[in-house]
Amino acid sequence: MNPSEIVSFEILKLENRMFWMKILSSSIGYWLVTLWLNSIRTNASLLFVWILIIMQFALYFLIFITSYHRSKVYGLSKNNARNLFIVLAFLGRINDWELLIIPLLVIIMLILSVGNKNISKEGQLILNRK
């Protein structure tokens, strides 16, 4: 293995770990805020409930934004990826579909991430730096 291949391999590992960290932390955070919000919604002050709702929406959309950016690395075109994740984000807000869409999205993205051999544009910049 030459030094360039070693650096490429390390960049791929780093990007994969960063993606895993982002998607899992935002998903777990979303579920924890959702559970907390559901348990205190009737007793807490309105201002506190709205702060939690804003946090919940931010984490919800962070899941889809993270998946969108990673799907571009896989090779999905920018327009197709954007349209796919916008549709999924809106479908997730219908009734309780988020209980199905978010876990499936996270699982599929993590599986795709394991098999990914493409380096992102940012990783390419690091790789080409001399």
Overview of the structural elements:
The structure is a single chain. By secondary structure, this protein is mainly alpha-helical. It has one domain (3-128). The chain is built from five helices and no strands. The protein has helices spanning 3-40, 46-74, 78-92, 98-114, 121-128. It is elongated and about 60 Å long. The protein starts with a helix and ends with a helix. The mean pLDDT is 91.
Record the SSE blueprint.
Blueprint (H helix, E strand, L loop, with lengths): L2 H38 L5 H29 L3 H15 L5 H17 L6 H8 L2
State the main characteristics.
130 residues; single chain; 0% strand; mainly alpha
Backbone CA Rg: 18 Å
Tally of separate helices: 5
Number of domains: 1
Averaged pLDDT: 91
SSE series: HHHHH
Helix content: over 70%
DSSP, total strands: 0
Structural class: mainly alpha
Uncertain ranges:
none
The best one-word shape is elongated
- Which strand-content bin applies to the residues? under 5%
Largest sheet: none
Query: How many angstroms does the end-to-end distance come to?
Result: 19 Å
Précis, in short:
The chain has 130 residues and is mostly helical. Helices cover 82% and strands 0% of the residues. The chain has one domain.
